[in-house]
Amino acid sequence: PTAIQIRDVVKRYAGDKGQEGKLALKGVSFDVPQGGIFGLLGPNGAGKSTLINILAGLVTKTSGTASIWGFDIDEQRRNAKRAIGIVPQEIVFDPFFTPYEVLENQAGFYGIAKSLRRSEELLRAVHLADKRDAYARTLSGGMKRRLLIAKAMVHSPPILVLDEPTAGVDVELRRLLWELVTQLNDDGVTVVLTTHYLEEAEQLCDRVAIINHGELIANKPTREMVDMA
Ligand code: ADP
Ligand code: ADP
């Protein structure tokens, strides 16, 4: 199947007290093909997070359709959800859980049998094996971001979506996160990420869609995008 299919998606947020709400997406359509690293590039306020949150089931679209791995996000919610792992922008952990517990709890949410869990392997993959039993509150920002990626991969989804994975991080951590994303992609995971850094899209993505004011204004292989600029 196509990894992600978005068709004519409109989102109007509810307005305050009779005021008309913000039109965050004005009828967006695109496909994310399987296997690559797809970048959704756009300035702050363009509608990137809104789109990701719709896919994550956190925001309800006003109209249009979306499917993940061939599963309609409304009609086949459970299957759609299992096909995707979401790395949110904000870091949200219970500070008194350890990385190992965070992953085990997540596996529990998904009903994954103990014998089929891969918490240790995931911790190794994100270079956190030595922090297995540290309290999450003692981890650095970079370690927490890596733990979020491992958490999103607990149910082995074929698609990983990252919302602004490197916003506000230093150069060194950015490189490390790029390496992790590339490694996952090499292992067969289709990656979608949002970014407002052109350089990130150029370096990491093989296809880039540009979104501005809730409209898709380009969608091309990265090399053609770079020629344009
Ligand atoms: P991006 O992720 O590209 O920065 P967002 O999707 O966060 O953009 O925001 C798109 C537009 O929708 C912005 O104008 C933003 O202010 C508005 N918006 C986002 N979330 C909400 C919300 N919960 N309620 C009302 N307006 C929102
Ligand atoms: P359910 O719909 O089965 O009750 P929830 O939506 O409550 O599941 O999610 C359970 C846990 O899984 C929460 O920690 C939530 O943040 C997380 N989660 C849900 N969907 C995803 C996903 N696609 N990728 C990563 N984590 C997810």
TrEMBL record:
Keywords: ATP-binding, Nucleotide-binding, Transport. GO terms for molecular function: ATP binding; ATP hydrolysis activity. Residues 4-229 form the ABC transporter domain. This is ATP-binding cassette domain-containing protein. The chain holds residues 4 to 232 of 315 of the full protein.
